[in-house]
Request: fold
Amino acid sequence: MIRMVRAAAPVDPAPRHREFVALGARCFTRVSYTEWGSSAAERTVVCAHGLTRNGRDFDFIAQRLARAGMRVIAPDLPGRGRSEPMRDWHEYATPLYLSVMSGLIARLDVEHVDWIGTSLGGHIGMELAALPGAPIRRLVLNDFGARVAARALQRISAYLNADVGRRFASIEAVEEHLREILAPFGTLTDEQWRHMAVHGAIDAGNGGLRLNHDPALSKMFWWPIVLDIVLWQVWDKVACPTLIVRGVDSDLLAPDRPAWSVTSSSRTADTRPP
Amino acid sequence: MDDSQVAVVAAFLAAEDVRSFAAEPRAAGGGVR
Reply:
């Protein structure tokens, strides 16, 4: 039986923008997030975005979950969206993301959260959920799994490096670019693509626009990517029910995967997804 | 995520347990491991 969670209070349809200071390896950094729904809701869902994106990607699903009575938190990872860029690009790695997200969860004043992660956001969720005592009740991996295809990482590396210094004359040009590089996101509406463009670009001066992330992120992809990334040692330690969602045009997950699959909290070699 | 995937995610989060979720008609197209 599926039971929808009841709201503790009427849902405020407007997002609330908040920020806090989190600890990196060598400095503190200011992290922003968008909050939807009642802070008194029975369930809190953290939505973590992909490599170069930001928390506003989740506005549509956040509104839906908030209407179902959930509180939704969509952070901008450091160097993306409204969050501060790191002083040292070497910090853009898993330890930073786990530290920052741990700080975010602590700030929410809840016993546990549900986690929806797209691509990098899925990786962060999986790493967190694999740790003993993780306060994650359920995990949703959107276009991410325990095996990440090298060809997809090569594609991401190519556009990330090509985008360094790129300027756009208009929001229409940004949208056209995003439709190309984010095609594996699947079938989005025109409204959703425009929304991603509006929140995915900032003023670059001289009337132009640039993508809304730290260009130094590209330095993480300077070396050749030859092999798939395999994370079974992490996957096997995840102790919560997990839903994997695969986009129709995804190249991060194997093409023969089902549209979605669920793994219960009990992990064995037989429960590894294909 | 498109609308159908969002619906699956919302149902997964709201379900009392994952096996009952998988038994729902809307779950057609996926599976439980």
Observations:
- The longest strand of chain A covers residues 28-36.
- Helices of chain A lie at 59-67, 94-107, 120-129, 150-162, 171-181, 190-199, 232-235.
- DSSP finds seven helices and twelve strands in chain A.
